[in-house]
Each structure stands twice: as C-alpha cells, then as structure tokens.
Amino acid sequence: MKTLSRTWTLTRLRLRLAVRNRAFFFFSLVMPLIFLFGAAIFLRRGPERTQWIPYVLGAVLTTTVMGSFWGLSVQLVTFREQGILRRFRLAPVGAGPILASSILSNYFMSLPVVAFEFLVCRWAFHMHTWGNLWLVFLLVTVGSATFSALGLIVASVTNTMQETQMINNLLWMAFLFLTGATVPLAIFPIWLQRIALFIPGQYLATGLESATTNMAGPAEVIEDVIALTLGLLVAFEVSRHLFRWEPDAKAPRSAKLWVLAALVPFLLFGVWENIAGNRLHRVDRNFETLSGSTIPEQATGAR
Amino acid sequence: MGESIIRVADLCKSYGPVQALRGVTFDVHEGEVFGLLGPNGAGKTTTVEILEGLRTPDRGTAEVCSLNPESAGEGLKEVIGAVLQSTSLPAKLRVREALELFANFYPRRADVTQLLRRFQLEEKAHAFYSELSGGQKQRLALALSLVNDPKVVFLDEPTAGLDPQVRREIYDIIQELRRDKKTVLLTTHYIEEAERLCDRVAIVDHGRVMALGTPRELKQKSAGTTRLEIRLARAAANGTLAHLDGVSDCREFDGAYVLYSSRPPQTIVALVKQLEGENNELQSLEMFSPSLEDVFIELTGRRLRE
Q1: For chain A, which residues make up each domain, given as ranges?
Q2: Are A244 and A152 in contact (CB under 8 A)?
Q3: Fold entry, domain B4-219
Q4: Hey, is the C-beta of A91 within 8 angstroms of any chain B C-beta?
Q5: Cβ within 8 Å, pair B86-A83
Q6: Helix A200-212 crosses helix A279-291 at what angle (to 10 degrees)?
Q7: Domain locations in chain B as residue ranges
Q8: B224-289 has which CATH code?
Q9: Distances from the Cα of A48 to the Cα of A52, A127, A128, A145, B60, angstroms
Q10: Is the ipTM of this complex over 0.85?
Q11: pTM
C-alpha cells in the first residue's frame, strides 16, 4: 500500500514537471503533428484521403507512443547526474516507485496527445472511421509502458548524457525507419522486413495500424499486445535491477548482458514470426489501405 | 548528555586504491551537536554517507538509533534527516511542492507551512527551485531534512560555499535544532563553525579520528601556548626561530612563520633582537589565543585548508 501511495505521489510530481517543460510539448505533441501534416502534403495526390488517413494515424500514434522511450532515458540520466536521485534515496522510496512513476506519468501525458491526434484526423482530414478504439487504447497503454521501460534500460546502462544520446539516436533511427512508423515496412526488401520482425517498435506499429484501419480483430492484435507486455515486464525488472542512484556509480560490465535479456521476448517473437508467423502479410494488408494494391514486387515475391 | 544514539567502530572504506576511512571510531550522544572537523578528503562525507545508508563500509560497524544503516532500509530513513553535500532538486519544482512531496513519503510529518516560516521561505513558497539563491536552496535543503521530524539530522558541510550572512543564518538554525533536542552530526572544515556550534568535535584527517572532545577540551591540549604568526622581509635563518625564548614549536606556512610560545612578550623581544642581528625586518605580527586550528596543526602538521 505504501509503495502504491509513493508511486502515485511521484507520478503527480512527474506530471507537474512535464507540463512545465516546453521541450516535452514540442517532442510529444508538435513533432507527431508535423509528421501528420507532412504526410498529408506528401500524399495529397494519392488515393482518397479518407482511405489513407487511418493508416497514417496508426503511424503517427506509433511515433507518439515510442517517444516515451527518448524522453524518459534522458530525464533519468539528468536526474542522476544532477544528484536529484540521491536526494530521493534519503527518503523511504525505492527504485520501483521511481521507475513506475516515470512510466505512469508518461502514459498519462500521452493520452491527451493521442486523443488530439485522433480528433485532428477526424475533423481536419475527415477520417471516415474511428478504427477499433478499444484496441488502440490497449496498444497505446501497453506500448507507452514498454517503450518507457526500454528508455529506463538505456538510462541504466549508460554512464553519461553523451552516451545516452548516442544510444538513443541509434535506437530511435531503427524505431522510426525500420518498424513502419514513418516509412511503410511493406515497401522494404524482404530481408529488411525479416530483420524488422526483431524490433520492438514493429509490434506497436503493426498493431496500431491494424487497429486504426480497423483491419484486425482482437485475436490478431493480441499477439502484438503479448509481445509488448512481455517486453515491458522484462525491461522493467531489468531496469529496476540496474538502477543507480549515485552520479558517480558506473554501470557494471554485466549490464550490457542484462540489456540482451530485456530483448529476449522480441528475439523469440522475431524468430517465431520469421519461421511461422503471418505478420508480414498483415503489414502488406495494412499498407494496401494506403496505396491500393501497389506493393513492390520485390517485397512480396520472396515471401 | 543522553545515551549514544550513533555508534561508529573501526569503520574502514576504500575507493579503489584510495583508503578513505582507516578505522574511524566515535559515539554521538542523544541531543548533542557533534562535529566532524577536517580538510577535504579527510573521510567526513564517507563516514556520514555510511551512517545514512548511502554507502557500505568495507569493515567496522555503524549504528544509528540502534539500527544498522546497511540493512535497516525504510526504518532508518524514517528517523533520520539529512543535508547532502552535493544534491539538487528538479529545476521546475516549486518550494512548497518539494516540501509536500517529501513529507508525503513519511508516516510522521512536520507541518509544511511551519517549516516554510521557520526557514524564511514563505515568500518563495511558489518559486521554482531554479529561481532560488544558493542560501535559499540550502535553507530548503535544511527544511527538507526536517519534514519527517527526525531524531537524528546529518548535515554534510551545510555552509560550504555560502556567504557569511547566510552562514550565520544557518548557524541560527542549527542552534534551534539543539534547542529542539535533535541530535545533529555536522561535518565542516570551518573552525569557527565547529567551535561555535558543536558540543563535541572529532578532528579527522586521512580517514582517522586524530582527537575527540569538547572544543574546550581540545583547546586545552594547546593550553598555555599562544600562536604568533609573523611575516619577515627575508626568510629566517634555518632553525633560529625555533630557539627563541618561550617558543615550543615553529612551522612555516605560505611564507609566514607560526610560533607557539608559552611566554609571548619574551618571545617577541627575542624575535626583534634576532632580526636586528640578521639585518632582517618584521613585516607583520599577529597573536592568537589557542583555537581548534592550532590543535589541528599540532596533530597533523598542516593547516585545515591545505
């Protein structure tokens, strides 16, 4: 009970700090909207707008939700470097509530942004469907928590802000461009698509695109939810294990191995999808709502 | 004086090849203000952080309120308050919010409004942490250390880097803590602070307790000797000053000579004669009655700030 109460106290603190942070608004609200409007300009001569908007919305929501990863890792390292965490260490608060509160506050902050993006698509771009709202809600919830937890792992294994930014940039590029969040996965060569099956963001992107285009039922999306949930549980536990309070505490060498442990669920799902899964067919099907039936031959031929 | 509320015995701690603590031993009685006086790197902060449960000793035992800091966890945190030497709060956190936040973590809480008043932070209650001056930040840190109405308060160099005015304000706060019967463990490298605030002082250097007692007891070790600090136009001939009338010890620091004399007038007369004979000139002469600084110099052969 004490732990829950302390987690909630810290969550309220994080929410207050987030709304006072201009950078947060820029990266979590303005950036995805820029992408949305950019896509609108790029695709204005394509198929009917009402047809592609749900697909693009799925991608925009994915970018919004994955953004949790970036913000949290930077914030946690800043707190550690500035000695803020060691002040909390003097209070009866463990690593669990501190980590859980960052995940929760990030989630709560993402909900109005997700709602706003839906409303912009519905009213400004005349989106014809709400998609499957329950599935969207479920994926946003699990996805936000999973990517926050992955961000916490980055913070746990890096010693300086420079290192954190470097790893963040690498991962962020992979999350943005190899998952279908910005460039549709269906247009990539098949070998690249197969690699993408190991990337956590791919499960969120496919799930959200299926949910917003109303192309999938719960049974299909549940696989995405399970992959993300397993990823969340392992990532949270690993980051709790590796949590460091002190600015001068260095990450142990074994920390890198623990990161691999956090990725095990996605490695297993990736192997299974490559051998027996139908995820890449779902990727194609979702993409067809954007482009009609123009999936590049190179991509479909080898499947 | 009450019973021992903090017990430290043979505490050792190393950071790689550096031995920060080499068998530190002392007790702090309930209700007293106890000082750890020593230069930077003496091991004061390591000792305090072990007692706060932030670091683990390599050897030895530590006890606070009959609890082992290493294993007591929340039990310890609920009965102690602390001002860390280097710490911070989120820039966009308001003063009142910070106090309410930390108060929320404890079952036993002090009144936040009263704390704001007591630490003269009422006007800044809605200011962001980043908008506070150094002195205000330190007052907030002190207020935060009392949000749980602790039995023991650890103050690690609470006045370091502050201007004299703010330092005096902090002294008043520590005097108030004494009146409230709180046990305070204070680390400092300011002689004045230790003499003025502490009931007992442990002089620490190179990870060892060199001497322990009330400031009066410690100064009695230098009783009967007066410190004369002199500056000369040219360096004195080797060993000549140490043999002046009444001089028991002579050391050179930063181009000045420090003489310890049991008969200052005779020493001064002898000094003037000596300098005339050497065709040297006395540029300045200052006399000091014994202080903790002298005790420190006697024990370590160094000044506290070196």
Answers
A1: 2-301
A2: no
A3: Rossmann fold (3.40.50)
A4: yes
A5: yes
A6: 50
A7: 4-219, 224-289
A8: 3.30.70
A9: 7, 10, 11, 34, 76
A10: no
A11: 0.82
